[in-house]
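anyone seen this seq b4? input:
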Amino acid sequence: MHAETETYSASLDEYVDHKANHWCAGANRANAPMHQDDEAILPPVIVDAAALLARTFKPRVHLLSPWLTTQSLTMIYARRGIGKTHMAMGVAYALASGGEFIGWKAAQPVRVLYLDGEMPGADLKERLAKIITNSELEAPAGYLQIMTPDVQPFGMLPNLYDRDGQRAIDAVMGDTQVIIVDNLSCLVRGGKENEGESWQPVAEWALRMRSAGRSVIFIHHAGKGGQQRGTSKREDLLDTVISLRRPADYTPDQGARFEVHFEKARALYGEDVDPIDARLQTMPDGKQAWTIQRVADSTDEQIVEMTDMGMTTREIGTELGVTHSTIVRALARLKECGRYTPKPKAPRKPREPAQHWSDGHD
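predicted toks r here
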């Protein structure tokens, strides 16, 4: 290795390019999708209806109920600082340990490969240690595998935009069942984010993972408008899209707290996709735990509290970013189910009879 490094010591990029044909540092510099140009082209397989019905496929089973199944493709996105990595690592350890995270439960431990693209090793270690300490279950040895820059020879991870980078990750995949890509901005280095073509190489890799029976969770940033950043074409392929948002009444002293909203969820309905408010809190015994409640319940509590403070329905609507009529309907619903009792109105003073101009005159 030393001899090779000396031979290509002109620059790190030159060495990496030589060894892996743009494995980490060199994305597709023509900014064009690869479309398997470097692989043998095989004719597609066609089956008729009878053959399809007769064929045996592995049933899709829940890995983290209710939303993550085998062969799932998912995106979780949020603005910076909301809690994407809290979410990603919580999901990863719940899967690896057969535990639970914010009400989502794993049936049994599954093997997870966590691709961390940006967190310093010391911070990653500290956060993982806290998760393990506060978890009721321990992941079996080898069930949570982590790829992070600080343990790489040159401080870089393979590039998922590049076919050689994909091969490098595939080579260490082993019997991984779930891959968590944290995050797209760090691990997909190439193309223009706002153009659909830039997603094509990653989409093809994700489909290969799904065909192999694996599930992939992509972690991504939100743009200025609050939606996932870049091309919306990413969402076409996905089974589930989850958005993390800052609660309207959030204050910095609350630490890690976010709302979880399902924006796309195939075959999920009702309470399974109800938004939830999740908060990491320190318990009396010193351990940390996530507490959750339905976003509707949290909003209801705010409405009742603001009403008791004497705020009008219009003022409450302005504060929460909803219409006045929404607050009126919410108070009526809360009153009907016994969660809100209007304060009795103060009796109105009787109106004094208006004096006639002629009063006091003959």
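The two ends are 120 Å apart (CA to CA). The chain has two domains: 61-293, 300-336. kinda curious what u guys think
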